[in-house]
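Notes from the 1:1 (GR / supervisor)

We went over the backlog. Supervisor wanted to see one worked example end to end before approving the batch request, so GR pasted a single chain during the call. The sequence is below; no edits were made to it. Supervisor asked that the structure be written out right there so they could see what the output format looks like.
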Amino acid sequence: MRYVEEFRDPTAAKALLAEIEKVTKQIGATKEKPVHIMEICGGHTHAIFRYGLDRLTPEGIEFIHGPGCPVCVLPMSRVDECVQIAEKPNVIFTTFGDAMRVPGTKKSLLQAKADGADIRMVYSPLDALELARRNPDKEVVFFGLGFETTTPSTALSIQQAARDGLTNFSVFCNHITVPEPIKALLDDPYMMLDGFVGPGHVSMVIGVHPYDFIARDYGKPIVVAGFEPLDLLQSVLMVLTQIRDGRAEVENQYARIVPEHGNPISIAAINDVYERRPSFEWRGLGEIDASGLKIRDSYKAFDAEEKFGIGYAAGPRVVQEPDGCECGAVMTGRMKPTACPQFGKGCTPEMPLGALMVSSEGACAAYWQYGGRRAAEPAE
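Structure output shown during the call:
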């Protein structure tokens, strides 16, 4: 398959690994004093473990798993509000599959569905729009969740609903942005980060310039990366080369997909439909200024928070994590998933305590899925 097989070539991988080892030695990184590289995107975390890149790269490199999983950073209070909407009479609540099993304080959406709520998994907000057309006597709510990657599709769906006059369609907006939590991490005096592997899909929408502050203000290199093994190895090499050369720049390894200035149609739709919230709560990070998006007043007829009087429209609510759940520490790179006392015991994919074990981009799910067979299998 074009643009897949050539990025999984073992010969090219060995050449990149040899260069990575060479530059790692030039930097002087060791197991005791490693270079800390944060992969921001949860998709990158899973790719690193799927292909065993954490074992193939030298001991002087330590991958730190960042907060780039939108399901994982959703606070429990917002899950509770999803359930609250879904359990209202005459409501069809629609959501992506990843969010179905994320636990709230009392139940998940999947449990609410089992209790009788009309909750349906969809693949796109356009599916929710079609449900609204077919069910004019029902309120159809779409759970708008995700970073800049999924934000345009929700915005375009709201614009379409406005054109069609579908007043029984609304969005519970939980769209968030990537640059702001990175800044929050860099401002944390306890974080030890030497460079970043930047998200590919988000950057496809917003381009590379929103990350300029990372290099300019904090002196850290960042390389926007693709998702195949050679993409990630090349990106790690580019980060290491910048560190060796004393540079801090924004570089684009994923140029075959990511345009420098992003997608203008997507950006225009986002700017038309959304505005920044003053602050938004992130699981593990707390309130972060201007990190969440809110539906503008011009489209408030399609804002589920306004329609049902919940969420930030009713005032924010902070919910404590379950005892022993260390999602926040894992998500901010302070702890590896296996160090969490609940990992594999009180928290499993079948009965999760936290979202990191549920989401297809969660770090705990990656450790669980790919970690069990590692003791018996050599790195290849």
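Supervisor's comment: The chain has a mean pLDDT of 91.
Batch request approved.
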